[in-house]
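Example record

The entry below shows one chain as it appears in the dataset: sequence first, then structure tokens.
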Amino acid sequence: MSTATPATAIQAGDIVTEGHPPGKKKARRGIKSYYPTWFFIPALVLYVVFFALPTFSSFYFSLTRWSLFDSTFIGFQNYVQFFSDPQLYTSFIHTLVYAVITSGAKVIIGFFLALLLTAPIIGRGYLRAVVFFPVLLSTIGVGIMWKALLDPFHGMVNAVLGFFGLPQPGWLTDPNLALYSIAGIDIWKGIGIATLIFMAGIVAIPTEYFEAARIDGAGAWKIMRQITIPLTRGATATVIILSLIGGLRSFDIIWVTTGGGPGFTSDVLASVIYKQYQAGFFGLSTAGNVVLFLLVTAIMVPLSYFLNRKQVEL
């Protein structure tokens, strides 16, 4: 008598269903498991065409000397030239200073404005609209408006200072003030978004926490330090990340108000990159774009990880 196992024998663990052999059922189950991923294909194609390809093309062209019609591979010469040029290196420092000042001010001022605008005060709705109004304006229009207001001879700001007998500096023409004056304009323009995010974070805190703290005799400072600030950490992280990215890649306000001047004292990476494009140094300016991309990534990735880790610990 033969004891060999037939080739079509059913193995342990197979589910036997009438009319559906185990092999076909496994194949059908495999197709079903991949079925939802098919819906990601259109998004994947769009991502590759509009984001991945331009990004990798930028990395390649930063290693070339190229015009609109041809390119020559030159390795890392563009990067060597970028960091050996004092003007480009100075713009790198200006970018960091500008980003830290604008993001830090937006966090601090936005938080206290949000505290005020979530309190039961008269005219709260009107004050909220006033704070948010600059966000709705065109950045170019804001730059032109403040350039006129800060004019050293005919500007309204210096006219008011002169009326009270105060010094009348050249806000946008003094090399020591130009970058900080533009940072002030940027803060004025973007403070509404920071305030709005903080307001959302504050109103999301359960009112029971504040009521319990007041019953225990906690004052306003203690409530803010032990309840409001810790429980708005998520909003704080969002404002820091958004404002820091905006500060690192800021260009339009700087270009409209000073064009990077006087001299190169208010030049940042984005304005220098634009100047290099204007001069026809496409490879060098593309290398600047890559440096700006790596700078933003190197700062934001660890910072985002740190801020999100702190949120989890709460």
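Notes for this example: The longest strand covers residues 64-66. The beta strands are 64-66, 71-73.
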